[in-house]
Amino acid sequence: MQGIALKLRQHAGWPAETDVEKYADWVVILPFEARRGVRFPSADLLYQRRARLGRKEPDTEPFITELPNENGTRVAFASIKPRLGQFELLTLARKLVAVPVRNKAEKFAVAVAGFPARECERIAEAVIAAAYAAAAQMPSFKSKGDDKPRLRAVELFGVRAPHGFGRTAAEAEGNAIARQLSLLPSNMLTPADYLKAIRRIARENHWKLEFHDMKSLAHMKAGAFLAVAQGSPTADAGIVRLRYQPRGGGQRGAAKVALVGKGICFDTGGVNLKTARTMYNMHQDMQGSAVALGTLLALTKLNYRHPAEAWLALAMNHIGPKSYKPNDVIAACDGTTIEVIDTDAEGRMVLADTLALASRGKPGLIIDFATLTGACVHALGRAYSGIFTNREDLVPRLVRNGRTSGERVWPFPMDADYDEALRSDIADVKQCSTESGTDQILAARFLQRFVKNDVPWVHIDLSAARSKNGLAHIPTETTGFGVRYAVSLLLDGLADS
Ligand SMILES: [Zn+2]
Fold first, then answer.
1. Which residue ranges in the chain fall short of pLDDT 50?
2. How far is the CA of 29 from the centre of ligand 1 (A)?
3. pTM surpassing 0.90?
4. pLDDT of residue 102
5. How far apart are CA 262 and CA 347, in angstroms?
6. I need a labelling partner for 308 at 20 to 30 A (CA). Which of 5, 199, 241, 437 fits?
């Protein structure tokens, strides 16, 4: 894993003609209308050339042109309306930043002008977020050459924020680590490899680490987790608990936050084996745990005022003589007996015990992340993730934070009558239903049973974990969706209420 080596320099003043010429690549964002106060030297030329192309609407794609100076300065230009939605703004920022990145630029300059100061800062933030996302190195095992981005620096003109966009950088670091881990194939990221990587990250960030291996989980009677893990030839599965304490003690009496993540390093489906098409990319079935880890990393870098924990359920879902089977009856660590229906619904099995353990310590809030159901993808597509909670009054806030962070979520109902589909003749509950088309809701209803002590709980079904051509500011198909969203939720005080 590698941090992001991107330097950001802020220039309070406006670029002079000579500044413009100094940089080979510019990203320029100016207003669609009301151009008063636009102090970018070549603004008139940019507007003229754009108009000549017949662009009559605000831009959703960059307009690329070269300025008539010695350097042939290349500009990726967009003229937009103020108060553009955060998702749309981040999407445009990704496309603008892609221009210098495609050209192997090591640095580019940004100018945002002609909007009210706070709006200029919001637009600049989107470009910086996109720059960090593009500069993050993703794993590549090509033996010859590399097509990695070389972006090292961004020079920002027209905005000078005293915070230096530290939150954007922290979110980007957390997102990058989530994407890097998710992209590693399962022959390089077994549960044992994953644990090793987590140990290193924990050391760097002064987190306490506990690992509940299969032996200790057997002692804790975590049968739901072990049912999945027992199919592996190597007994390297387990549940990691990481603990963060704010420097200086944080806010007095602040409630603990628990982040829980599904970490299935490869999901074959088990005995209910997946087909080729649906098995491809199943090395990323651990993305939920990587997002929980990335969120804890971002919170640590921001010295979040609350103590926080991450609970990561690391296992493989293998097929083999010891694999669990449909109709097996299994007891979770809280004593709940589960009738297994489909071994491919392994995520809710490992999370059942993990949620029960995480909620034993009575945290003030649990957020779990999981690439859990195909049904959620069918319902929402891959540009939104599904949200579920045992506190219905939180729903408007959860949705609003999706809008403002640019990582959009949509809620599903959690009414108790959905449980009828999970009624079992032989055990306390069925793992899932063979009939219902609402598996994302049934999975959430199933998980809720294991959240103990009535802890407020938010479950995120990561249908947006992979999205072709990237999503919002993220340029890779693997999105790391959830880090920016969860940081936004927590810094906006969700754990304070
Ligand atoms: Zn599965």
1. none
2. 44
3. yes
4. 93
5. 6
6. 5
